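User: I've been going back and forth on whether these two constructs are worth ordering. Before I decide, could you fold them both?

Assistant: Sure. I'll take them in the order you sent them. The first construct and its structure tokens:
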Amino acid sequence: MTTEPTIMAGQGTYSTVSVRGIGFAPSKRSIISNTVSLQEKLQLEPRFMNDPFLREAQKRWDKIYFDQTYTRESNGTCKRDAKVDHIGDHIAKLLKKVHRAQADEDNYNAFANLTEEAVGDAAIYRTQLANTLGFNLKSRLGHVKTTSSDLSEAKDLLIVALPQDYTEPHEHRSARSSSLRSEVRNVGIPAMHMAHLILTNYCEVDPFMSHLERLADKPGIANVN
């Protein structure tokens, strides 16, 4: 499959820049390379790469790298509530990364993890939750913007984004009711999106590109020349 790279959704930040004194932003060449390789690996039509939330790319990425890690239904699809719980596990890990970066803002490794991993992870979990629970990101959150770069606010939002009964051990959690799914859909997903935007502001990176670069970080997708 040969396609022309389409990067309209994230044209805001192409060139390598100094991010809080550390150069992390991807070069235009790496962006185009990763865009092409993602399209080929996931067999995406160019129009899917114009989606600022990369919904179709995320669905196909999940099938390769994420959905196979927990129980599937008999028809091969993933159990919805199991997937929400699994995403919750990852949101908790993301929260720890943000906390470490905030606790020591001069720590190079903590900031590197925040910029190279956590920002893109926030976008991944947002889109995963939305795809899993039928939340239309484009119509519901496409207009949302913020100028905040407050890591404390981002942490609070990530806590809100955790499934309501996440603090209970897996074996003790009640079966997720429709009301709990509604809570994640209507409160958790918007909180996850806002946390992602705050993190991109703090790290001075483009929201779309942080998502794309993180998806491209898996073996077989990244580093195609």
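The second construct, handled the same way:
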Amino acid sequence: MPSITKCNKGVFAISGIGFTMIFLSMVFCVFHALAFVQTEVLTARICRRETSRALNEIKFSFEKLFSLNSSAELLRTRWLALEAQIIAAEALLPESLPALTILLQQKAVLLIQRQQLDHTQKFILNSIDLQSLNFRSQISLALKSYKSSGVLNYKLSNLQIYTLQSGIAFPDIPDIAPVYGLHPQWNQKAYVSVSWNERQTSEDSWISGNLEKLEWNSGCSFALGAKPIGLVPQLQVVARALSRDRLLLRR
């Protein structure tokens, strides 16, 4: 009987240790899952915040560019009419010399106005490219500087950023101060997309030897939707679908 009792106690002790290990493993798995979810939520929030903010700034610049189209159209119409008047006056020389002189003066003034508008348009286009460039550095810094608190950290790698360029605003004809419209491939090019890989890192040897092998992909994207209404297209920032995040186990 005593030997049986000791045997039972040993079995219970071993079972207790086994259940304790299972319980601790479950607790750690829950902790790990919560840390994973928290990281995913926070990095996705950073991505959406920075991407949406940047695209709204770019949207504002495109709206400023398109708002100049009515002035560009008006100056072009006046320019063409003035050229027609000059041709008619030249045909009536020398009697039309006083009128031709006035017309040429008007043309010189109009040319300066068109050049000034053209300079403003190009300045806006350059600012759009600069905004895109700044966004690349800002989103990269924001994501890479984020680290989870505690024993588990996350290393970001393979960061890929696509930003739209000013070239998606298309001039109607090669001219001084042209009317800018939507590029034929606007819907395929007018978006901002960010994607990256995340991998767990830890200073703990057991964690780094087991859970550091876990990697996954994430990202976000926003598009600049547009409707070609008259000389000033309507623009709207909308969320754009990315392929769903995939959990990858590195072997």
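Notes on the second construct follow. The helical segments are 2-67, 69-90, 97-144, 186-189, 205-210. The first helix runs from residue 2 to 67.
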